[in-house]
Design the sequence.
């Protein structure tokens, strides 16, 4: 089949490589424009570099739905659009530029977690299982008929970045199997149960702020979910000094026992560890970073920062 790969993020890269090495033909990569990265220079997207290394032409329209982009896609005379982590919603007209429309590689078990950040929100909400879904695209957000689906367990300490990398490989294999089945005419599509749909909106920086009133296990999930971006963060309030922004990369939950304390309060500290009260249970930071500094273990942090029982962690202004 004659394919057009449409993708921007790292999640799309394994699919591009897999399809290139298959018996199908990747005509071009459609990706978003390069991002400004400083005066008079652009940051070339990694997937663009990958396509160029494979000899695949690259097309970077500001909008894939613009008339000139539609015209260029039609000229390719392609059979199918293969979309993954692109960052734009394709219009009906864009989907009609190929003989078979488009399929999307989505990193959740649809209809759960429709949206731009399905992996992060699955971890945030404490899911223990997720997967990849291949859908026949329509102009609505992740709402097309399901063509194929594969599930995996979420590992107990896995971050969103680590899980997404695994799902990207799974999605690439599943997409190729689906394309082969489409060519044979053996795919059986099934509609999504829209009543079961949940949302996975695009992450914003403020999503990283830790809410210490939540149970400790949920805070640990939050920390895992916010990696690699925007990262989970809080502010350390110690005496009358200015609040210090702290990024948490890894932490453990423990039940205690410690004296009842307001969430976010340091309830125990020694040379090797500190314990922070949550809404239920306690958080023991393992790896953390003072904003602008380097990532360090809890013992390293405590050697350079005098944390005391009664100090508070929370928003910048308590």
Sequence:
């Amino acid at each position: 089949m004659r394919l057009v790969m449409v993708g921007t993020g790292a999640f799309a890269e394994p699919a591009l490589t897999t399809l290139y090495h298959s018996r199908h033909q990747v005509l071009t990569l459609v990706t978003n424009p390069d991002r400004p990265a400083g005066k008079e220079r652009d940051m070339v997207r990694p997937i663009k570099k990958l396509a160029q290394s494979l000899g695949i032409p690259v097309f970077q329209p500001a909008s894939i739905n613009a008339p000139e982009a539609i015209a260029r896609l039609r000229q390719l005379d392609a059979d199918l659009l293969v979309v993954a982590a692109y960052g734009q919603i394709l219009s009906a007209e864009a989907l009609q530029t190929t003989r078979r429309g488009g399929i999307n590689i989505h990193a959740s078990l649809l209809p759960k977690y429709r949206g731009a950040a399905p992996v992060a929100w699955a971890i945030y909400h404490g899911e223990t299982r997720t997967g990849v879904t291949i859908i026949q695209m329509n102009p609505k957000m992740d709402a097309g008929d399901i063509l194929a689906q594969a599930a995996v367990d979420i590992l107990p300490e896995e971050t969103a970045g680590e899980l997404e990398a695994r799902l990207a490989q799974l999605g690439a294999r599943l997409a190729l199997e689906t394309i082969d089945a489409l060519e044979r005419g053996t795919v059986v599509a099934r509609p999504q149960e829209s009543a079961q749909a949940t949302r996975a909106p695009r992450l914003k920086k403020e999503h990283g702020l830790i809410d210490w009133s939540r149970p400790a296990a949920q805070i640990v999930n939050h920390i895992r979910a916010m990696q690699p971006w925007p990262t989970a963060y809080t502010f350390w309030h110690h005496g009358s000094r200015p609040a210090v922004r702290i990024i948490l990369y890894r932490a453990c939950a423990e039940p205690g026992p410690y004296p009842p304390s307001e969430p976010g309060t340091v309830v125990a500290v020694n040379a090797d560890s500190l314990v922070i009260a949550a809404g239920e249970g306690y958080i023991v930071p393992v790896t953390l970073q003072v904003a602008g500094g380097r990532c360090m273990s809890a013992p390293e942090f405590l050697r350079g920062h005098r944390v005391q029982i009664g100090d508070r962690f929370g928003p910048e202004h308590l």
Summary: The helical segments are 13-20, 46-53, 67-75, 92-95, 118-124, 160-184, 216-225, 298-304. The radius of gyration is 23 Å. The longest helix spans residues 160-184. The domain at 2-196 is CATH 3.40.50.170 (Rossmann fold).
